[in-house]
Fold this sequence. Notes:
Distance between the termini: 38 Å
Number of strands: 2
Radius of gyration: 29 Å
Order of helices and strands: EEHHHHHHHHHHHHHH
Structural class: mainly alpha
Amino acid sequence: MTKHDASGWHVAGILAARYADGTLPESDAWSLEKHVERCAGCAARVSGAVRATAAGAVLGDVRAAVLAAGPTVAPTSAPAPAPVTAPLRATRPRPSRLPRLARLLWAAGPAVRGAWLTAVLGVAVGAMLLGLGGGFTQARVVLLAIAPVLPVAGVALSYGPHADPLYEITAATPGGGLRLALTRTAAVLAVSLPLLTLTGLLLPGSGAPAAAAWLLPGLALSLATLALASFTGCRTAAGVTAGGWLCAVLAPLPGAPAGEVTHQLAEQLSRCLDGAVAQGAWAAAAVLGGALLAVRRSAYDRLPRR
């Protein structure tokens, strides 16, 4: 659809024709219009394609009629050009990296710039203090029970009218909608996955599942939250997925003896996380969540205000 050279992409003839007849998708049309503002060659190509349509002929007739009805201005002699004493060389200002950095920080989302990041760091530091400083041998068990919920909370705090005061504007742009939600979710996962996994590796095992056993559940729950958010909104979806995980993990604890709570929690986590069957089920859930999200991607253009 486009032609490329060393300076970037340019509008091809078929792309200009689709723009002229109105069959080009809206996001591609916005990109084209932005490009022709600074590319005279592409602007001429698009203008020619528009003039070749039936609407272009009508616009040409209207333009001719307006010019004919306007006042006639007597031609004046053009002033003699000033002598050029030395050739002038146009210099292009070096683009600043600050706007790009600002866009990246904006795309990272509110979660990694707000209280959520503090909460994740607090969980990691608290687990380290309990396991290494306080001698609590089941610190990894508690960390693994909480870890899958933290990315879900970050997803809930990253996208939607409650998280972004310019939500309606950003959702209507070509870079908004699901693309922005995925960008911010990736930022949340990029922070939480390595940090919590490294913390789990440093803590004593004591019968707990492996430190990386929560990675697939965390990914599956995050994708499930995004997919469910297309129906209910981010906060409600996060409450459902995080609440479901906590209910499944904490279900055996109310009937456990006082001294066996952490042991029961470790056994339940082993059932939920350990083994090829459990991990395969989480991988299948992640694929299913991604597929549902792909099907529901257009819903992010009109995400509910919850």
